[in-house]
Amino acid sequence: MSSPRPSRDRQYDLFVSLLTHNEPALRRFVRSLLPGGEGLDDVMQNVALECWHKFSDFVADGQDPQTDFRRWAFVVARFKTLSYLRDAKRRRLVFDADVIARLAAAAEAAEDASRDERAAVETCLASMAEESRRLLLSVHSAGDSVARIAAESGEKARRLYARLERLRTDLLSCVENRLAGRASNG
């Protein structure tokens, strides 16, 4: 019978899970702060190391890793990017700290908007009938198509394409309404 894993192992597992989940957003964030994207991998490595070194403090400060990790990691990423750019200043033109702060704010806002849009699309898709959702998603699924669905259902492809257009319009309207409602409430 094995003994329970030490707290540090559980903390490491949680950290790796959170970092892996948030890495694409962090990478986009850092890329938006770097002129031309040069040094992206170096900065990302430094961000990951710094986040790990400070993760126990982050958790000890009462932060909720599931909801607060991304914002905290963005702050670490911003400072690591500034540090990288300060070091690179000798090589060529780089942004000053004020420009980086503005770019960081814009990148965070864009990431929030993107997250809100994805959530709205998922909610609107979930509210659709299964058959409508399948048709709408069929054009984006490998190996599935409107023509194949038409052949399976015996319906004319032209009619399905017209229905697909209506569904797209309905989805767009639903997403816009959800985002507008969120904007007026927040």
Features:
single chain, 186 residues, 7 helices, 80% helix, disordered N terminus, RNA_pol_sigma70_ECF_RHOBA, sigma factor, transcription, RNA_pol_sigma-70_dom, RNA polymerase sigma-70 region 2 domain-containing protein
Describe the protein:
Helices cover 80% and strands 0% of the residues. The chain has 186 residues and is mainly alpha-helical. It folds into two domains: 104 residues, no CATH class; 64 residues, Arc Repressor Mutant, subunit A (Orthogonal Bundle), CATH 1.10.10. Helix 1 packs across helix 2, helix 1 packs across helix 3 and helix 1 packs across helix 4. The chain is elongated and about 65 Å long. The N terminus is likely disordered.
Task: Give the helix/strand layout.
Layout lengths: L6 H27 L6 H21 L4 H24 L8 H30 L3 H9 L7 H8 L3 H29 L1
Helix pairs in contact: 1-2, 1-3, 1-4, 2-3, 4-7, 5-7
InterPro entries: RNA_pol_sigma-70-like, RNA_pol_sigma-70_dom, RNA_pol_sigma70_ECF_RHOBA, RNA_pol_sigma70_r2, RNA_pol_sigma_r2
Protein name: RNA polymerase sigma-70 region 2 domain-containing protein
Organism: Alienimonas chondri
* Secondary-structure class: mainly alpha
Radius of gyration: 22 Å
What ranges have pLDDT less than 50 throughout 5 or more consecutive residues? 1-6
Number of domains: 2
- The percentage helix is over 70%
> What fraction strand?
under 5%
Biggest pleated-sheet summary: none
Secondary-structure element order, N to C: HHHHHHH
> What count of helical segments does DSSP give?
7
How many individual β-strands?
0
Average pLDDT, all residues: 84
**End-to-end CA span:** 52 Å
Inertia-based shape: elongated
